[in-house]
Write a structure and sequence with these properties.
Blueprint (H helix, E strand, L loop, with lengths): L1 E5 L4 H10 L3 E5 L10 H8 L7 E6 L4 H11 L3 E4 L5 H10 L4 E8 L3 H7 L7 E6 L26 E3 L8 H7 L4 E4 L4 E3 L2 E2 L1 H12 L1
Parallel strand pairs: 1-2, 1-8, 2-3, 3-4, 4-5, 5-6, 6-7, 7-8
Antiparallel strand pairs: 9-10
């Protein structure tokens, strides 16, 4: 199972989190976010990482040109679209960045959103389901209703996100069988500052 720790801002934390067992690190490329990092800051973290770690940039309603430029400057291996990107946008981005993983994140408000999520599966590599919040795009600490997700079975891999912590991850994975999990605020002391003890605790729980 893939484990993505999102909202990385510091090279030493990124390197340590990768060594603890993360398979992917996420970098917030949304300027309004308290976890925002520039392409140069992303590159500083990526330079410290092993080759096999996935490096995912999180964008929201950015242009294809801006995304491509950030990928080129930073060395990202994946792009997560966390805004209102259309199927057509995802398809065009995938064509213009053929070697980059395209992840579409959807904020789930009700069960109708599961149907909407499935419409993207032919046009992206991976889905990510996050909890809905009226003001924030992610990192809210709000969980999804895991019971409603038990029958969610899209035609592509998918990440479970939304309020996951070392304390609740075992319960979540008993109910839901995603291809991966994504944590941000659940392993932080402050936005963008990861709590390495919480990260260690997470991987201990996942081992058990």
């Amino acid at each position: 199972m893939r484990v993505k720790i999102c909202g990385i801002t510091k090279p030493i934390q990124g390197k340590t989190i990768a060594s603890l067992g993360a398979t992917a690190l996420g970098f917030i490329c949304v300027r309004a976010s308290p976890r925002y990092v520039t392409p140069e800051q992303i590159r500083a973290v990526i330079d410290e990482l092993p080759q096999q770690i996935d490096k995912i940039g999180v964008f929201a309603n950015s242009s294809k040109e801006e995304i491509a430029q950030t990928v080129a400057e930073s060395g990202l291996t994946g792009v997560q679209l966390h805004g209102d990107e259309s199927i057509e946008f995802c398809q065009q981005l995938r064509e213009s960045l053929p070697k980059v993983e395209i992840i579409k994140a959807l904020r789930i408000k009700n069960t109708d959103d599961f149907t909407k999520a499935k419409t993207y599966t032919k046009y992206v590599d991976t889905l990510l389901l996050d909890a809905y919040h009226p003001q924030q795009l992610g990192g809210t600490g709000k969980t999804l209703n895991w019971d409603t997700l038990q029958k969610f079975d899209p035609d592509c891999p998918w990440f479970l996100a939304g309020g996951l912590t070392p304390q609740n991850v075992s319960e979540a994975l008993e109910k839901v069988k995603p291809s991966g999990i994504d944590l941000s605020s659940g392993v932080e002391t402050a936005p963008g500052d990861k709590d390495l003890d919480k990260v260690r605790d997470l991987f201990e729980k996942l081992k058990n």
